[in-house]
Design goal:
two-stranded antiparallel sheet, two-stranded parallel ribbon, alpha+beta, 59% helix, 6 strands
C-alpha cells in the first residue's frame, strides 16, 4: 500500500510523463519532499510550456518563475518581471514606505497584501500569501530545508546578465580600439579629439564595471556548478 507522499509522487510522475504544455502547481513545496522537489525543479528548468504556480516558498519562486502578479489592494494587480528576489527589489523601489514591513516579516506578508506568482512564459495566477510573519514549526522546518536547497542561485536578472556579459565586454573593447584609431585620425581636430577622449573614458569605466560583474557572476556560477 502506497503512503500519501508516495501517491503524490506517483501522480506527479504520471502528469509529467503525459508531456503537458501547461502545468498548474498549487503550493508544491508543501506536499513534496526535498528529493522530489529537486527533480521537479530540474524538470521545469527544461520545460518548454507554461507554468502557473502559487507558493509561499520564495526560493522555489526564484528558481522557477520569471513573472509575478501581485494583488496590491483596491482591485489593483501589478506585474513584475523576474523571480521573488527581483519582485521584492522592484516592489520596494515603487513603495519605499513599505521597506520596514519587508524587513520585519521577510516576505510579502509583512506589508499586509496578497500576492501571486506567474508562469514561465506569460501567463500567471495569483494566490494569498501567509498573513502572519512567522509560521508553524513544520513551516519553519520546510523553510530551512528550502534555504539549504537554494543557498546558491542566480536571480532572473543575473541569469540574463550572465548570458550576454561576454558579448557586452567584447563590444566595449571593440569600441575602445576604434576610438583609439579615430583619435589618431583627428589628432589636430581638438573639438573632435575632446569628444573622443570623453567617450573613451566613459567606455573604459563601463568596461571596468562589466569586468567586475563578470568576475562576480563567473565565481557565482562556478560555486553553483560545484553544488
Amino acid at each position: 500500500k502506497l503512503s500519501g507522499g508516495e501517491k503524490r509522487r506517483l501522480y506527479l510522475l504520471r502528469v509529467l510523463m503525459s508531456e503537458p504544455n501547461v502545468l498548474i502547481l498549487d503550493e508544491p513545496t508543501n506536499d513534496l519532499d526535498i528529493r522530489t522537489m529537486t527533480i521537479l525543479e530540474d524538470y521545469l528548468d527544461h520545460f518548454d510550456g507554461i507554468v502557473i504556480t502559487v507558493s509561499h516558498d520564495r526560493y522555489f519562486l526564484d528558481r522557477v518563475v520569471n513573472r509575478i502578479f501581485s494583488f496590491e489592494g483596491n482591485g489593483h494587480i501589478a506585474q513584475y518581471e523576474g523571480g521573488y528576489t527581483d519582485y521584492q527589489v522592484e516592489y520596494l523601489r515603487r513603495h519605499p514606505e513599505q521597506e520596514t514591513g519587508f524587513a520585519k516579516a521577510g516576505s510579502v506578508a509583512g506589508v499586509g497584501m496578497d500576492a501571486g506568482t506567474a508562469g514561465k512564459i506569460t501567463v500567471g495566477s495569483a494566490g494569498k500569501v501567509d498573513s502572519s510573519p512567522s509560521g508553524t514549526g513544520e513551516e519553519e522546518s520546510n523553510s530551512t530545508s528550502n534555504r539549504e536547497r537554494h543557498q546558491l542561485r542566480m536571480s532572473y536578472k543575473e541569469k540574463k546578465e550572465w548570458e550576454t556579459i561576454e558579448q557586452d565586454i567584447d563590444a566595449l573593447e571593440t569600441r575602445i580600439s576604434a576610438i583609439d584609431e579615430e583619435m589618431l585620425q583627428y589628432a589636430k581636430d581638438f573639438v573632435k579629439l575632446h569628444e573622443l577622449t570623453k567617450e573613451k573614458e566613459e567606455k573604459e569605466a563601463a568596461l571596468d564595471a562589466k569586468m567586475e560583474r563578470w568576475a562576480y557572476l563567473s565565481d557565482l556560477q562556478e560555486k553553483i556548478d560545484k553544488g
